[in-house]
């Protein structure tokens, strides 16, 4: 997904999100495969990167059997999946900063597709580092409290006791921030307290946001995000568009 600041927007389009569940599982499975191959282990207790991806998989309701089968597939001697992590940076309408994280087995396919979308709906692809300086890498855990079952003060105290760096309530959504190195420990501690997550992953969090007012800019920015996220190679799209 595109990030914590868009959670209300995601809720409003939950039917569409459910329709994309299979695609979400496929993308998380790709991350699991890369994590296992990179770390050479299928045990999340001894593999922090894998533990982080499993937390993300659980948050999108990927069944445990799927997670287990994907790990076993990655460990298999016949597995030939070979994905490379690539990050693209550029600009959306009116200078909105955009970071695209991809896992691809063919850069020559992925790069032109990302460039085309940024050129068509934004201001184009930029050089490495052109916008990432304006984001902070953080662990972000989202709790959905639409039903009002969670007490704000209790969640805040539990989160801080578990090692979270910050807590932010926003109507019926609670956002818990962690340092990247503390993310897995905080997730595990909160799970032990009985919490389930609407989203849990390491994100690129904007330091500042850009508000779009022109109708054309708003339409193009939404199209840019949608088309990027529909790309099979794209794992995450981070941006500093203020959608509130």
What does this structure look like?
This protein has 244 residues and is an alpha+beta fold. It folds into three domains: 4-75, Integrase, N-terminal zinc-binding domain (Arc Repressor Mutant, subunit A), CATH 1.10.10.200; 84-133 and 207-239, YebC, transcriptional regulation domain (Alpha-Beta Plaits, 2-Layer Sandwich), CATH 3.30.70; 136-205, YebC, transcriptional regulation domain (Alpha-Beta Plaits, 2-Layer Sandwich), CATH 3.30.70. It is 43% helix and 22% strand. It is built from nine helices and eight strands. The protein has helices at residues 7-12, 14-19, 21-39, 48-59, 64-75, 107-121, 152-161, 183-192, 215-230, and strands at 84-91, 97-104, 124-125, 135-144, 166-170, 173-178, 199-206, 234-239. The protein has a four-stranded antiparallel β-sheet. It has a four-stranded antiparallel β-sheet with strand order 5-6-4-7. Strand 1 and strand 2 form a beta hairpin. Helix 3 (21-39) runs antiparallel to helix 4 and helix 6 (107-121) runs antiparallel to helix 9. The longest helix has 19 residues, at 21-39. It is globular, with a radius of gyration of 18 Å. 36% of the residues are buried. Residues 8-16 have low confidence and may be disordered.
